[in-house]
Amino acid sequence: MARYVRIVDAVNYRVGRVMMWGLFVMMGILLWSSISKTFFTPSLWTLEMAQFAMVTYYIVGGPYSIQLGSNVRMDLFYHNWSPHKKAWFDAFTVLLLILYLGVLFYGGMGSTAYSLGYWGDAPLSYFTGLLTGNEEIGRLERSSTAWRPYIWPVKVIMVFGFFLMLLQAVSEFFKDIARINGQEIGVRRA
User: Fold this and answer.
1) For the chain, N or C: smaller number of CB within 10 Å?
2) What is the mean pLDDT of residues 160-165?
3) Torsions phi, psi of 166, nearest 5?
4) What is the number of helices (H) and of strands (E) in the chain?
5) pLDDT (tens digit, 9 = 90+) per residue, 49-87?
């Protein structure tokens, strides 16, 4: 468990630190949007690209936020509990988060398969078929806006982010189990 926690925390820490710079990417896109609307012909791509950048920033940076414990909590009773009781409660809620992220991951895989031109009901076997050569990429989904970008890249990024969040949630569960047993693994960074 400790090795898993160290590896997943290290990966998500590095990915999260890189994603922090995504804020500047969004600012650059929106600044260009303002400049082009004021002085030139407005660009068609800026609004949708800013949305794609925001999805990337939010979803791929999410595991880093979970790792640091910087997510929003409503703390009515929790702060008065003992560390042991907090660990039990955290383990239970993280299990619910793992279930939720599993559903998001599976749905994201189905949505990504659809954006790659697959209309069946077995998205996981579709991706296995892509790897083995038994499946082909079909008609690629495009946005319905005037810019009409392909949708699959942002869906792949979302699935990647859900996967990293799922790994981080399992890491947090392992940390809670260790706390229940009176141990501490994976020191939180501030």
Assistant:
1) C
2) 97
3) -65, -45
4) 6, 0
5) 999 999 999 999 999 999 998 877 778 888 889 989 999
CB-based contacts of 48, cutoff 8 Å, min separation 6: 143, 145, 147, 149
Copy the structure tokens of residue 18. Answer: 């890189």
pLDDT at 175: 95
The more confidently predicted of residues 21 and 41 is 21
Q: Which residues pair with 142 in a beta bridge?
A: 150
**Residue linked to tokens 């947090």:** 172
In the numeric block, which tokens belong to residue 49? Answer: 């690209």
**Measured distance CA(28)–CA(26) in Å, rounded:** 5
pTM above 0.85, yes or no: yes
Residues 132-169 as b/e (b if ≥16 CB within 10 A, e otherwise) read eeebeeeeebeeeeeeeeebbebbebbbbbbbbbbbbb
- CA dist 54 and 68 (Å) reads 20
Between the alpha carbon of residue 110 and those of residues 28, 57, 133, 188, the distances in Å are 32, 22, 19, 34
Contact of 4 with 180, CB cutoff 8 Å: no
How far apart (Å, rounded) are the C-alpha atoms in residues 46 and 48?
6
Residue 114 carries which side chain, given as an amino acid letter?
Answer: Y
Helices 83-115/152-180 angle, 10° precision: 160
Closest CA to 172 of 100, 17, 64, 83: 64
